[in-house]
Amino acid sequence: MHRFNMSHIKLAALALALSCSVAAPASAADPKVAGKASDAKVSMCIGCHGIPGYRASFPEVYSVPMIAGQNGEYIQAALRAYASGERTHPTMDAISKSLSDKDIADLAAYYSNLK
Fold it and tell me: Is the pTM of this model over 0.90?
């Protein structure tokens, strides 16, 4: 089994955040919006938040909440809290800090409209 150290985790989170933040702006308010830009923007969340019962194991075992159908204002507040350091988790910290205000609003609108 391969062991990851903190540097590996930070680099992986940063790479994920950077790869998702370069997507062209797209209107994610409509969950039916298709295309590479909107797919890239929303795909950074679905890998953890789209798996029922998923548990992250770093830095501790953490139950990852589903965000489809979650209140949009709550999603925005959570992302801003991670970006400011008020809330903390290595992956969420890196991703949230890479998002613009528009990205946060788009993601919140997209996921709040999913069922």
Answer: no
